[in-house]
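Re-running NAD(P)H-dependent oxidoreductase to confirm reproducibility after the cluster update. Everything else is unchanged from the original entry.
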Amino acid sequence: MPELKCFALNCSLKPSTSQEKSSTDKLLNDLIEALARHGAITAPVVRAADRNIKPGVLSDQGEGDEWPELRSKILAADIFILGLPIWLGQPSSIAKRVLERMDAFLSETDDRGRMPAAGKVALVAVVGNEDGAHHCHAECFQALNDVGFTIPANSGVYWVGEAMQKVNYVDLPAMPDAVQSALAMAASNAVHLAGLLKQDRYDGVAQ
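Result of re-run:
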């Protein structure tokens, strides 16, 4: 199995300077631990709210735009993890901005029509204390697949608390068994698929 690199982007609305703990961070770190058991190497999680990700659909929106650096980190990884909270039943606005910026991949194909994310695997980790995890996965996976990422089986991991209550994932005394098994399966499938794609990249189509 080749060495695999992972990169996780936390799309919480909270910057790292916030005094509040991030449930998204907690779930991402739990998933990273599961990936590490298979030998995957993960760079430090980046909090998107700490970066100036300008609106737009280009890979570089000009002066002050910090997306190009994040784009490089995403494309340097074999496994990309998008972590996000649910707000009003939707993926966070920051997650949507990240996906919008990846729209540029559609026009950045190589001589065989492959987008920059071709041959790379994507996972999505969702947290919230309301319904909407499956909806968020559907939106994110559709977008990630459109811009070239490959989605492994059982790769949508999540935790949602009881609706209209204040218990968050970060406050749980222990990881629920269902979450633990979902993380283990997602990690195993992602590493397996990423390893295959790293050794045998998609051919694309001659232009």
